[in-house]
Design a protein that fits this description.
Elements (H helix, E strand, L loop, with lengths): L5 E8 L11 H9 L1 E8 L6 H6 L5 H15 L3 E4 L15 E2 L2 E3 L3 E4 L5 E4 L6 H5 L1 H7 L1 H20 L7 H5 L3 H21 L4 E4 L6 E5 L2 E5 L8 E5 L5 E5 H4 L4 H4 L2 H5 L9
Parallel strand pairs: 1-2, 2-3, 3-5, 7-8, 8-10
Antiparallel strand pairs: 1-11, 4-5, 6-7, 9-10, 11-12
Helix pairs in contact: 1-3
Length: 272
C-alpha cells in the first residue's frame, strides 16, 4: 500500500451509511488518508439516520471518518453536503454552513474543462421512475407535480411516524425488477440534467457506480461505501474517473464481512 497522497481537484462520495454495520468505514478511512482534493462532495446517505433511530451503532471507525472529513475542511478543503433520504433531516438546514461544511439541496459543479455537472443524491426520482410512462404522456407539468408529490408524501409519512418510502429499496427485494429499475432511474436522472441545461449529472442512491453517456448527457453514479467502495474523482485537467478503492488497494471486503454480517443490514444493499 503506497503512502503517496493522490491529489485531485474534486472528490465525490456518497452512500457511506455511517451508523450501520454494513458501512465499510475502514476502507473509506484508508481512501481519505491517501487522497486529497480542493473540493469534496458528500452526495447523500452519509449518515444512516433511519437505522440510528431504531438502534444505536457508532463504532470508533465511524467517528474517525467524520473527524477525518472535518479535518480536511479545517485544512482548507471545501466540503459540500447534499443530503439523501437516509440523512434527510439535514435538508432542513439547506444553505447553512457548520464545521466547515456547506449543506445544499443540489449543486451545479463546473469542471476544470468547463463542463457543468448537476450534483444531487437522486432519491427524488424514485416516484418519477415508478410513473415514467404516465408522466411521459402527461407532460412537463405532471413531471413537476410528481417531484413535489414525492416530497410531500414522505413528509406526511414522517409526521405519522413512518420512514421515507423508497421504490429502490422496495425493488432490491425483487431482483428481477432491479435491472430495469436501475436503467429507468439512470434515464430519469439524465433527463433532469437535460431539463436544467447542464452537461451531466453526478448522483448516488442506487449503490451502482456507473459512468456513461445517455443521449447527450453524461450520467455518473459515484457508487457506495457499503459494498463496492467507489468514488468519483476529477483530475486537475477536468478528466473524470471512477475509482474502486478496494480493487486499487487490493483489499478484500469479503475477509471483513461474513455472509452473516452482510445479512444484518438488508436495508443498505444494492439499492437503498
Amino acid at each position: 500500500m503506497s503512502d503517496q497522497v493522490r491529489r485531485y481537484r474534486t472528490i465525490f462520495i456518497s452512500d457511506i451509511h455511517l451508523g450501520t454495520r454494513g458501512c465499510q468505514a475502514e476502507f473509506l478511512l484508508d481512501f481519505l488518508k491517501q487522497t486529497d482534493a480542493e473540493t469534496i462532495f458528500l452526495v447523500g446517505d452519509i449518515v444512516d439516520g433511519w437505522r440510528l433511530k431504531r438502534s444505536w451503532y457508532w463504532p470508533q471507525s465511524h467517528n474517525d471518518v467524520v473527524q477525518k472529513l472535518l479535518r480536511k475542511a479545517r485544512k482548507g478543503a471545501r466540503l459540500i453536503y447534499v443530503p439523501g433520504n437516509h440523512d434527510e433531516v439535514l435538508r432542513q438546514y439547506t444553505g447553512v454552513h457548520f464545521g466547515g461544511v456547506e449543506v445544499v439541496n443540489d449543486y451545479i459543479h463546473e469542471t476544470a474543462d468547463g463542463r457543468r455537472l448537476l450534483v444531487m443524491h437522486g432519491d427524488a426520482f424514485d416516484g418519477i421512475v415508478l410513473y415514467a410512462k404516465w408522466l411521459a404522456l402527461m407532460g412537463d407539468w405532471a413531471y413537476n407535480l410528481a417531484l413535489t408529490a414525492n416530497t410531500w408524501f414522505n413528509r406526511a409519512r414522517r409526521s405519522l411516524g413512518f420512514g421515507y418510502w423508497s421504490i429502490s429499496a422496495f425493488l432490491k427485494e425483487r431482483v428481477k425488477n432491479a435491472v430495469q429499475f436501475i436503467d429507468n432511474f439512470e434515464r430519469a436522472v439524465a433527463e433532469e440534467a437535460r431539463r436544467r441545461n447542464v452537461d451531466g449529472v453526478v448522483c448516488g442512491h442506487i449503490h451502482k457506480a456507473e459512468m456513461r453517456m445517455i443521449g447527450d448527457v453524461l450520467y455518473i453514479n459515484d457508487g457506495d461505501w457499503v459494498e463496492s467502495c467507489t468514488a468519483l474523482v476529477e483530475h486537475f485537467d477536468g478528466r473524470l474517473e471512477l475509482i474502486n478503492w478496494a480493487e486499487i488497494q487490493n483489499l478484500s471486503m469479503l475477509d471483513r464481512r461474513s455472509p452473516k454480517r452482510r445479512a444484518e443490514d438488508p436495508e443498505v444493499g444494492i439499492a437503498a
